[in-house]
Design brief:
Layout: H1 5-12, H2 20-23, E1 31-35, E2 38-41, E3 46-49, H3 52-55, H4 64-74, H5 88-100, E4 105-111, H6 114-132, E5 141-145, H7 154-158, H8 163-166, E6 177-179, H9 184-193, E7 198-203, E8 207-208, E9 214-215, H10 220-231, E10 234-238, E11 262-265, E12 277-282, H11 283-287, H12 309-324, H13 327-346, E13 353-357, E14 360-364, H14 374-385, E15 387-388, E16 390-392, E17 395-398, H15 406-427
Parallel strand pairs: 3-15, 5-6, 5-7, 7-10, 10-11
Antiparallel strand pairs: 1-2, 2-3, 4-12, 8-9, 11-12, 13-14, 14-17, 16-17
Helix pairs in contact: 4-12, 5-12, 9-10, 13-15, 14-15
């Protein structure tokens, strides 16, 4: 008996970041299989995975090494709690993360998603300051960048700055201080004015992903680190999107020689296989939580699937693949090629600018009437041509798996350019452009 999965989807599913009223009017793409950097739908059509399945796939789908490790782990144990227990995979992975992370980060706290990793970092920073005592108990607020995005839980949304995602929930969120991205003088102004009340600064190093791939000027991250040190503020680096090679180095922090006090990881941690996130902390922060049980210094936070053995096994295999396949070394030529391929795209009449950091690309289509849904039109046109891409409103995002071949990279950029032209033509076939950015 055949099953109409598309209809079941329309009848029962509620998709993330999706206006369901529009969704049910379109035919959904039902991904049934995958091979390497290609996704295959239930009808057998193949698509280049142009956004790494939401920025998380690293070495391609069905990577033989990761697949084999997961099969072996299933034969041992799929899950056991880390509340009162541990397991070899969690311990080994923690040691490897400490080894590759910026210096000084020595402790690993697991969770399941980027939002939980940043939520944990915020709570750790807050509780650490409270437990220092004295004037530090006044450090109860946070600084974040305009257009920041750190997840959708209440804490992570509180340090977000994108009205489209966060404005509705403002009454639920705690107050924060917002500064201009890339503006060290503005950051210093806020830190100096509120010096004794700020617990931490949180930012995405080098590039703000969900803001439309906004790239910071060189040196900004280093200046932010120096300012945090000067004013006694902790630095939280959210590398959920930028980590695991996306900017060309394992972590974006490396490019400016910065070591944060707290580091948030997710997405590519398991190579795009299973939900796993990690918050790394310095020994100084970790020791701030030590004490007798009756002192109440314990970090009371944890999830059922914290440090899941299957996810840890996938993450260990992911890191092994980085080393064995020389992923970062081989990536450099692709980054250079990507820059060359995007040159003509930046010159298109329909494009107002291209922003890029490593393999993270935002193609800005300018300002248009939102009802045109120009970015979404580009997505639909790309599907017709065999690629899956996704916009952030009218910024077309490309972030392919690091394992993508140069041939497929060329094809992905060509499809994107063709799709932008086709989408623009269809949007304005019956009316002139409205407000386009210069």
């Amino acid at each position: 008996m055949s099953v109409d999965h598309a209809q079941l989807d329309r009848d029962h599913l509620w998709h993330p970041f999706t206006q369901q009223q529009d969704w049910v009017e379109e035919e959904p793409v039902m991904i049934e299989r995958a091979e390497g950097t290609w996704l295959i739908d239930s009808g057998g059509r193949r698509y280049i995975d142009g956004v790494s399945s939401l920025w998380c796939n690293v070495h391609g789908h069905r990577h033989p090494g990761i697949d084999a490790v997961l099969r072996a782990q299933v034969d041992r144990v799929a899950h056991s709690t880390m509340l009162g227990l541990s397991h070899p995979g969690a311990a080994e992975l923690a040691a490897e993360l400490v080894e590759i992370a910026p210096p000084g980060l020595s402790r690993v706290f697991y969770s399941e998603a980027g939002a939980t990793a940043t939520e944990i970092a915020l709570k750790m920073a807050f509780q650490f300051q409270q437990q220092r005592g004295g004037q530090h108990v006044r450090r109860t607020s946070f600084v974040h960048l305009r257009d920041a995005y750190h997840g959708d839980t209440i804490g992570s949304a509180s340090v977000g700055g994108i009205d489209l995602f966060h404005a509705t929930y403002r009454p639920l969120l705690f107050n924060t201080h917002m500064v201009e991205p890339g503006d060290a003088a503005d950051l210093e102004r806020v830190l100096s004015c509120h010096e004794e009340e700020i617990a931490a600064l949180i930012l995405e190093p080098l590039v703000q992903g969900a803001a439309g791939m906004l790239v910071h000027p060189p040196g900004y991250l280093r200046e932010a680190r120096e300012l945090c040190d000067r004013y006694g503020v902790l630095l939280i680096c959210d590398e959920v999107a930028t980590g695991f090679g996306r900017t060309g180095t394992m972590f974006a922090c490396e490019q400016e020689g910065v070591a944060p006090d707290l580091l948030c990881l997710g997405k590519g941690l398991t190579g795009g296989y299973l939900p796993l996130a990690a918050t790394l902390a310095t020994e100084r922060i970790y020791e701030g939580f030590l004490g007798a049980p009756e002192q109440g210094r314990t970090f009371f936070h944890g999830h059922t699937y914290t440090g899941n053995p299957l996810a840890c096994a996938a993450a260990l295999a992911n890191l092994e693949a980085f080393e064995q396949e020389r992923t970062l070394e081989r990536l450099q030529a692709k980054i250079e090629l990507l820059g060359e391929l995007l040159g003509p795209v930046a010159g298109m009449a329909e494009v107002t600018g291209v922003r890029r950091c490593g393999t993270m690309v935002g193609i800005d289509l300018g300002e248009h009437d939102p009802s045109l849904r120009l970015g979404h039109r580009v997505t639909l046109e790309a599907r017709k041509r065999g690629a899956i891409i996704r916009p952030l409103t009218d910024v077309v995002v490309l972030m392919p798996p690091l394992a993508i071949s140069e041939t497929d990279l060329r094809r992905l950029v060509a499809i994107t350019a063709e799709s932008i032209s086709a989408a623009h033509a269809s949007a304005y076939s019956s009316s002139p452009p409205l407000a386009q950015a210069a």
